[in-house]
Amino acid sequence: MTDLSGALAAPDQPADYLAALERLSDATVGVKLFTLMEIDRGRGVARRSYSNMPGAYPVSGEKPILDNDWTETVEGAGRTFVANTIDEIAAVFPDHELIRSLGCESCLNVPVTIAGRVVGTLNCLNAAGHYTAERVAASEALKLPGAVAFLLSRGLNEGARP
To answer: Contact, 107 vs 85, CB < 8 A?
Structure first.
């Protein structure tokens, strides 16, 4: 089901909505590995709030936010980061060997902005060269559903049960 409204109405939140967002992302741009990372600027980390490969990338896992091209592109400019080779991934992500071992050599990190701040990213990974200009353009349609995901997760974590 990629029906986000139906998923949002389902009782198991945010799990039902996040799984539907993964399916929508796969249908829109194609994903092997799909994660959501919430940015915690105070601690200088990004925390994983969803993963379709929890064995390799568990939920609640954290990565330090490094000062590199990724940070400048995503957080500084609010633009989607694209890397279509494992070398481009290795230049910004220290876990590039794990990424490659999962059959992924390209990534598309879609920033989600709420109230003027990037609150997190939708991270789509696939085979080398997968994220064409057309797929990058299509990823723009994932930003609003991504914002709902982060707001839903935040609301539930703060005790605002529906």
So the answer is: no
Tens-digit pLDDT profile for residues 137-160: 999 999 999 999 999 987 666 554
Q: Kindly state the tokens that stand for 62.
A: 């954290």
- What pTM does this model have? 0.92
Is 50 exceeded by the pLDDT of residue 162?
no
User: Nearest 5°: CA angle at 141, between 136 and 143?
Assistant: 95
Q: Which two tokens stand for residue 16?
A: 């039902």
- What are the DSSP E strand ranges found in 57-160? 62-64, 81-83, 106-114, 117-126
Instruction: For helices 15-29 and 143-157, give the axis angle rounded to 10 degrees.
Output: 160
- The beta-strand segments (E) located in the chain are 33-40, 45-51, 62-64, 81-83, 106-114, 117-126
Domains of the chain: 32-139 (3.30.450.40)
Q: Collapsing DSSP states into helix, strand and coil, what is residue 59?
A: coil
**Whole-angstrom distance, CA of residue 76 vs CA of residue 62:** 20
**Burial (CB count within 10 angstroms: exposed 0-12, middle 13-18, buried 19+), residue 81:** buried
